[in-house]
Amino acid sequence: MWQAAWIWAQGEISPRNEWRCFRKTFTCEETDNPGTATKLKLTADSRYVLYVNGTQVGRGPVRAFPSNLPYDEYDIGYLLKRGEENVIAVLVLHYGLATFQYLRGRGGLLLQVDRCTETNDSGGTNDSGETTTIVRTDASWQTAPHGAYDTTSQRISCQLAFTERFDSRVWDEGWKLAGFDASSWEQAAIIGEPGMAPWTTLSPRPIPYLTEEPIYPARVEEMNFVKPVPWSAAFDLRTILVPESVNNANPVTLIGFLATVVTMAADGELTIGSVDNGRMPLRVSLDGQWCPDEAYYGESPQQFVKVILGAGEHLLLLDLNRGMHGHAYHLGIDSDVTFELRSPLAAADGGFGERAGTEGSHDMTVPFAAVGPFGWAEHIDHQPEQHVDRNPAVYEEIKSVATLQRLLADYLAWIRPIEPQLYHTADVYSQTAWRVVDQPQPMPASLQRAVLASSDPGVIPLHPELDTEILIDFGRELTGYLAFELDAGEGTIVDFYGFEYMRDGWRQYTYELDNTLRYTCREGRQSYVSVVRRGLRYLAVTVRGASRPVKLYDAKLLQSNFPVSNAGTFQSSNAMLNEIWRISRDTTRMCMEDTFVDCPAFEQTFWVGDARNASLINYYAFGSTEIVERILRLVPESAFQSPLYGDQVPSGWSSVIPNWTFFWVTACLEHYHYTGNTAFAREMWPHVRFTLEHYLEKIDDRGLFKYKGWNLLDWAGFEQPGDGIVAPQNMFLVKALRDAGQLAAAADDTAVQARFEASADALRDAINANLWDESRQAYLDCIHVDGSPSATTSMQSQVVASLCGIPDEARSEVLQRYIVEPPASFVQIGSPFMSFFYHEALTRLGLQDVMTRDIVKEYGAMVDKGATTVWEVYAGSLSLNDNMLTRSHCHAWSAGPVFFLGSEVLGVRGITPGWTKVRIAPHPSGLLWARGSVPLPGSGRIDVSWELDEAARIVKMRVVAPAAVELDIIAPDGYSLELNQVAIG
Of 44, 242, 445, 832, which residue is least crowded by CB atoms under 10 Å? Predict the structure, then answer.
């Protein structure tokens, strides 16, 4: 099938942050066969954007393990010019490091264009005819680094790759078109044939292409004249001190310093701060004196410290002794006098420093040096812990060094220059979040044109000494690619920064997420479409260094998500419940990319446990089966990292959360139940059996599951230690074994089905024997490794016990009282994710009215605070400061109301695999009426509307469903049924 070869450039095989262009010109001959199709298939490492004759055709590939890399296929015949020169151009972004959706491979592009003729047989159907390859990647392709992209751009986060810094002055975007002079480009190098490592298997794209729908903003919210902190930079500390860490995304502990020499032009005040420390607390020493803890100030996690310095040189050390995951370390410095920074190593080399307030080219000497590391450790939660001495002697000695001379004389061997690619100055995040001048301005009415689909621009006014910021509100959370068109003078800098939430003038900056883009303008009218996905609601646009006003003609976001329609609907007599359903549905859509992701902004990561709940929600909102099958198949491919399977895949962070694997087992069964796809059940069953057999190896002498690792369930203060017996984990293992038994039955493996069911019974008995505390009349949260019971008693453990069928009848009655009225002394539920299981437990107990009241209360609080999507946690659970209600304002694991309102209030549940038989049993839960639609697997939907006649105790119900679906319609308790049933098809 493949005639093409893998190609790349000469030189480094896996360069960091490489934006590389490839192009090929060819002549497409005329053909007389009207059935001819021209198909282009390609894949790349790490990501590509494809253009044919200047038209963007697609982006890809989808995230995957490199050993099973998908390729994409496009029909490009309509874009080709017959008998003329055509150009295929591909921009490949190679990360050169591991992320939470990418395992480091090497740079590569594979592309092939085939002309396929089709023939009609006597039955009138089309069969494939002759296939001729007309273009293939080989040594005739030309390549060059894309000169407009700054390769020193910083990591977006530990989960994602790199921000964009694009200078349109230094690159001709005509490279995508015929007639471009590419004589200075190099010839591509063939690096191997299809099947080469690491891409040993190539497979067709398993899902449809994502959408790109232009969405315009709602309004311009603010205009401000601003001035940024005069010096700022971002550092990749993890790579600076542990260079080999680029090969994985595991957390590391590192021990070292950053060092610079500050030269003050006169006596003055120096402010050193971090608007986002990337989990490395700001700790500052000047001339051997460490600033005391009480000297630091700022709204957490921002930290600042002020010092008074005399004229001349001062040695500045920043203490780096902490665990890090790969977030950027953002640093800024301000002063009331002129200052310069230079590397300690520059003193010996005669190097020059960086003057505050200047841009500084990215290839200049970095004005800091690294000191150390004095030790480091990589942490993999499912492997033996690596220990490191956090206070080695040389580290403690250097902490007391007061002069540059002593540092160089005694510790020169520990001092290393910082590679320019691991540092960038004029940090957009810091410059946006730390303004030394901030002057709000009245909004010119004409500026609103900037956000309209109009030919008239919004003109961004200038200030003679300050920058101009406008704040754009899209009106709701979105995810996709920024696109804009503007007219500006050459050298004008336009910075973009997206964030999710603001209220009463307070902005919640995206801590640990560098959600920025810097665009440097050429002269005149120009446009740009981002190649980096972002999630945001608000967009701060700051114009810097403009010689004339900027005309903003267009600012939009190309909304990109898995292609689904709003097949599911819900309305009721409760307006708040309707809004909760809507924002939950919209959240799920925002979190549907090439997999389900946890959130569109911060991580964009496929977390396996989150996706079980998202799959159920998707069935009721959209009815998509393709995305669910895709994500479920990805999980077992992580077996090379652990037979317990990864908690987020595909990922360079090798991590296991047992509950997440248990939820995957349940999701496999639920997908079989929704689709009735027996082939899928048979395909997944060996993988389910494989991992659960490895989990059963960790049953201890008491018959309990004991695991040392990340034993997470909820972001709440109950005891879920990293070693020992964790109660909810044991309980969910019981459920996973029972669910696996049902999947085994579908796969006709009755022997293992019986074994797993027996294991579930034994584990349930062990839980009741060891984890029930008679004095508390509740299940313990855990038993520590020393044998001591948990001090906490939580709702989490009681809810999970009830849901998983752990207690006997007497204990079930006790737990039900707790579930209906949670005792104040118990640790309460901390996240909507945990509420999903709480609501499941309530429906299992027939307490849908309690469930609905809880949804209105907890989610209504989000709506009252202006939420357009649902939050990661309930207000305050993960807050870093008093203003911060949650971290992520759009989190798929929280969207459970879509599922529960469809399955319980509308009452629609499939009761046979494939939903060939469906039960409709509404639970009014205090509502007077409800109506909505639930998608059926494959095709069709069920429309339900019901209304209560309280006086007559009648429920009037209308049901529209395909005739092929058997319906079991049940009136609510205490009501008789007046039914209007319509069968279609």
Answer: 445
The angle, 0 to 180 degrees and rounded to 10, between the axes of the packed helices 678-696 and 750-770 is 40
Phi-psi region at 84: left, alpha or beta (left = phi > 0; alpha = psi -120 to 50): beta
Q: Report the 10 Å Cβ neighbour count for 808.
A: 10
In 660-739 the beta strands, taken as DSSP E runs, fall at 725-726
Closest CA to 514 of 100, 275, 156, 233: 156
Neighbours of 120 (CB within 10 A): 11
Contact indicator for 544, 432 with CB cutoff of 8 Å: no
Contact status, residue 570 vs residue 852, Cβ threshold 8 Å: no
Residue 126 has a pLDDT of 45
Strands (E), 617-731: 725-726
The token pair at 853 is 């009241």
Task: Please tell me the distance from the alpha carbon of residue 256 to that of residue 276, in angstroms, as a whole number.
Answer: 19
Closest CA to 741 of 725, 730, 752, 727: 752
Q: What token pair was written down for 892?
A: 């798929």
φ/ψ of residue 252, rounded to 5: -130, 150
Write down the pLDDT at residue 120.
56
Phi-psi region of 805 (alpha: psi -120 to 50; beta: other; left: phi over 0): left
Angle at 984 between CA 980 and CA 985, to 5 degrees: 160
User: What local confidence, expressed as pLDDT, does residue 31 receive?
Assistant: 66
Query: Between helices 832-844 and 848-864, what is the axis angle to 10°?
Result: 160
Mean pLDDT, to the nearest integer, of 743-748? 98
Query: In this structure, how many other beta carbons lie within 10 angstroms of the beta carbon of residue 461?
Result: 16
Can you state the angle between helices 809-820 and 795-803, rounded to 10 degrees? 130
Q: What is the mean predicted confidence (pLDDT) over 729-737?
A: 98
* Residue whose C-alpha is closest to residue 796's, from 659, 903, 704, 605: 659
Cα–Cα distance for residue pair 622/902, rounded to 1 Å? 12
SS3 assignment, position 536: strand
What is the DSSP code (8-state) at residue 256? E
Of 250, 245, 384, 249, the residue nearest 722 (C-alpha):
384
How far is Cα of residue 424 from the mean position of the Cα atoms in its chain? 24
Residue 503 class from Cβ within 10 Å (0-12 exposed, 13-18 middle, 19+ buried)?
A: exposed
pLDDT at 27 over 80: yes
Q: How confident is the model at residue 355 (pLDDT cuts 50, 70, 90)?
A: very low
Percent of the chain whose predicted confidence (pLDDT) is above 90: 94
Helix axis angle, 658-675 to 678-696, nearest 10°: 160
Confidence class for position 350, pLDDT limits 50, 70, 90: low
In Å, how far are 70, 550, 636, 724 from 654, measured between CA atoms? 22, 47, 13, 21
* CA 381 and chain centroid, separation: 21
- What pLDDT does 352 receive? 43
Dihedral of the alpha carbons of 227, 228, 229, 234, in degrees to the nearest 10 = -170
pLDDT of residue 952: 97
- How large a percentage of the chain has pLDDT more than 70? 97
Q: How far apart are CA 586 and CA 868, in angstroms?
A: 8
**According to the model, what pLDDT value does residue 123 have?**
43
Predicted confidence band of residue 348 (pLDDT cuts 50, 70, 90): low
Write the pLDDT tens digit of every residue in 560-610: 999 999 999 999 999 999 999 999 999 999 999 999 999 999 999 999 999
Query: DSSP per residue over 275-321, as a string?
Result: EE-TT----EEETTEEPPGGG-BSSTT-EEEEEEE-SEEEEEEEEEE
Yes or no: say if 959 and 944 are a contact pair by the CB < 8 Å rule: yes
Q: Which one, of 680, 635, 689, 609, lies nearest residue 65 by Cα?
A: 635
Looking at the predicted structure, is the pLDDT value of residue 24 above 80? Answer: yes
Copy the structure tokens of residue 971.
Answer: 């009136």
